[in-house]
């Protein structure tokens, strides 16, 4: 009987997993399906699983995740591990405001439970997305010891690698799916580091083998010197008089909804583990150790992986001018030069593709982060790129 390449790959994976399990203690992943959410009328029309995975020494850090299966073809579509920036911002920020399948109704009175409705341009229509509150201290993730209450860029890299491999051990049906890492904002510093660690762990025989294909970064902070130096030229070019940042009040709605006991019960959150949910936990002890992620991009490119880097062209926190500058510093040849890309016949931004399989795109009229401002355009951009099509 002839075995397909995918079938042979799965057999090898299962053999490796069996040997690994025989020589280690299998991790127990606490996961449950979510069928209903307060504020949404009726059962959820998509597959959502939440759960905890312990990482770090003695599984002292308990990471909470949300897994949305692709609404298209979960057996074959890519799996994206999505990390929210900050650091220490909750994954629910990306789910509710950027790329997830649900969003909150904008209301003036935050004392009432807001309604949930479906996002028309969710990225889960194209791929399965594994969101995680990361590291411990973000969202519903928590530490069981005082030692685990401290994190930093390099320790986080080890933990997210551990998290992903443990999650796949308990979801072997997704082992052969193309795997991508994605994130925005501060993850521009750390995600390339995580990706490099996963590559090297694969090469050392880490189990299970990760079917890594590439990474996606939106509005990415990348180099502290470059990013900050381009804020002034950007502000001048846009006719702004200061670099003040404004906070949206939609976030207050999320805070009110996420702290409802009924919502946390529906999501299967462990009682009395975090106190109140906050969008970004800036009080947590975190060490900012990576001054620039440019060297990691170089290493990943040398391995032949794909990447999509996109920026809102109205983002002053991480101006696209700085992002263009560090991409140019990589000195890769241009294979598809600066051109407009369209959605519904309208200019959605501009794009350029390089010989290292890196695509850079601007999103016209978008701020920080782009999908929050231009959901339709970003959804089309993601769909085209993840399927290997030109923007």
From TrEMBL:
Any one GO CC term of the record: extracellular region
Pfam families membership: Peptidase_S10
Q: Where is the protein situated, by its record's location annotation?
A: Secreted
Task: Write down the InterPro entries for this protein, in alphabetical order.
Answer: AB_hydrolase_fold, Peptidase_S10
Instruction: Specify the domain of life of the species encoding this protein.
Output: Eukaryota
Quick one: where is this thing mainly located? secreted
Task: Quote one Gene Ontology molecular function term.
Answer: serine-type carboxypeptidase activity
Family assignment? Belongs to the peptidase S10 family.
PANTHER family listed in its UniProt record: SERINE CARBOXYPEPTIDASE-LIKE 19, SERINE PROTEASE FAMILY S10 SERINE CARBOXYPEPTIDASE
Q: What is the protein name given in its UniProt record? A: Uncharacterized protein
Species name: Chenopodium quinoa
């Amino acid at each position: 009987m002839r075995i397909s390449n995918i079938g042979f790959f799965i057999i090898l994976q299962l053999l490796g997993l069996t040997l690994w399990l025989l020589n280690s203690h299998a991790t127990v992943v606490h996961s449950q399906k979510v069928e209903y959410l307060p504020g949404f009328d009726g059962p959820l029309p998509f597959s959502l699983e939440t759960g905890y995975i312990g990482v770090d020494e003695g599984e002292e850090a308990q990471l909470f995740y949300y897994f949305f299966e692709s609404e298209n073809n979960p057996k074959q579509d890519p799996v994206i591990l999505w990390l929210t920036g900050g650091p220490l911002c909750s994954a629910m920020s990306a789910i509710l405001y950027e790329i997830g399948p649900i969003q909150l109704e904008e209301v003036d009175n935050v004392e009432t439970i807001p309604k949930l409705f479906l996002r028309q341009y969710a990225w889960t229509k194209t791929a399965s997305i594994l969101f995680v509150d990361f590291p411990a201290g973000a969202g519903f993730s928590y530490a069981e010891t005082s030692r685990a209450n401290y994190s930093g860029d390099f320790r986080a890299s080890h933990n997210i690698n551990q998290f992903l491999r443990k999650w796949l051990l308990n979801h072997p049906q997704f082992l052969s799916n193309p795997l991508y890492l994605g994130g925005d904002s501060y993850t521009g510093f750390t995600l390339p580091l995580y990706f490099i660690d996963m590559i090297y762990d694969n090469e050392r025989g880490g189990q299970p083998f990760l079917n890594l294909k590439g990474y996606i970064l939106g509005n990415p902070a990348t180099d502290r010197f470059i990013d900050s130096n381009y804020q002034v030229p950007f502000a001048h070019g846009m006719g702004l008089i200061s670099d003040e940042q404004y906070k949206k009040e939609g976030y207050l709605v999320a805070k009110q909804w996420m702290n409802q006991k009924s919502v946390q019960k529906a999501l299967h959150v462990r009682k009395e583990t975090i106190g109140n949910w906050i969008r970004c936990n800036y009080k947590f002890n975190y060490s900012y150790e990576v001054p620039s992620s440019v060297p990691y991009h170089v290493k990943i490119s040398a391995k032949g992986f794909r990447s999509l880097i996109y920026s809102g062209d109205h983002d002053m926190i991480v101006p696209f001018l700085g992002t263009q500058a560090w991409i140019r510093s990589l000195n890769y040849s241009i294979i598809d030069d600066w051109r407009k890309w369209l959605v519904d016949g309208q200019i959605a931004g501009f794009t350029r593709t390089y010989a290292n399989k890196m695509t850079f795109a601007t999103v016209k009229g978008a701020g920080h982060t782009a999908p929050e401002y231009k959901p339709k355009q970003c959804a089309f951009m993601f769909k085209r790129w993840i399927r290997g099509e030109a923007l």
